[in-house]
Amino acid sequence: MSANEPLVRNISDTALWAAVYRARETERPNPLFRDPYARRLAGARGEEIAASIPFSEKGSWKWVARTVLYDQFITEQIQQGVDLVVNLATGLDARPYRMTLPPALRWVEVDLPGILDYKEEILQGETPACALERVRLDLADLNARRELFARLGRDAKHALIVTEGLLIYLTAEQVGSLATDLAAAPGFERWVLDLSSPELLRMLQKHMGPQLSQGGAKLQFAPSEGPGFFARYGWKAIDVRSQFKTAARLGLPPFLLRLMAMLPESKGAQGFRPWSGVCLLAKQS
What we know:
Shape: globular
CATH architecture: 3-Layer(aba) Sandwich
Helix content: 40-55%
Order of helices and strands: HHHHEHEHEHEHEHHEHHE
């Protein structure tokens, strides 16, 4: 890294940052999940990025809770018959290697060439638990992504779409366009995604935005209507799980925050309080 180069060079570098928290959780005496590849994938740069963002370090429990929730949703959906998982902007996710999955399950990872090349280099020699395909694609290329969705949808009966840590970097218009394209693909029945409230977005922009924006990773999407945002694009929220309440149940945040988590909360519009959750959507017929 040159002296004039920012730590976060581009949005793909946020994958190094996320991998740090999976590595740290794995290294605890009694981890909530195990990702034996995360430390190698994060590398020294991942630790440097994490250390440069104190707000993220103080709230490291949020990263762990998000991973736990995605693991839960994916496991449950596979048990209910999902035959294809499509992970968009997959980054350095290693679930096809670290989770117990049916060998016949198809798993497709979609991301930019650079991040997938790096990932393949690190994981060279490792064997995934299911049938894994990697697609090098810029999701901003509308024609290419629509062709991909159509191809994958034709071959699947019950597909689950995964967008972990992606939508917050998009505009509402871009998220709506993606939701429309996903709804148009046959076989795409479920979608698991994470959302933040407008108030939490403001906090993130204040405390983390300057570091991320240097690499063009601008924090943008936090719909005031919460999961209801997706109804106009053909998707209905069928399960919403709070990261805060999940973390409190697991004993992750400080004691005072765990007490606050006992308060009831809405699973719809979140208004002006800091909230984040992982949501399961179903395509409307």
